[in-house]
Amino acid sequence: MSPPRPTDRAAPGGGRRRPSGVRTRIVFRAGEPGSGRVVAEGHFFPGCVADGRGSLLNLREPGVVRALVDEAEARRLLPGGAESDGWELFSAAGEAVDLRRGAAATP
After folding, report:
1. Closest by alpha carbon to 30, among 17, 40, 44, 16?
2. Which of 45, 49, 64, 102 is buried deepest, with most CB atoms within 10 A?
3. 17: helix, coil or strand?
């Protein structure tokens, strides 16, 4: 038996299911001036989004996109075949990434 492909998702009951072929995009759009919602767009570190309250996610950092996908799945946004607002997932994903970093740093 071959190992599951990285794109396979867990099915109810712990089995594996094939990807549906439906693509859902998690999108971060820059906010209006003063909103604090900042997308890199060449202004600072590539692949980063910040909320203006001191929180920043680097979408190129391992585990960050996984945290966004996990949160979208927990909210039953997947598979949706549409765009999801990344800002709605930002805080929960940031907390998950922080917990993983803390666990990795604990001896």
Report:
1. 40
2. 49
3. strand
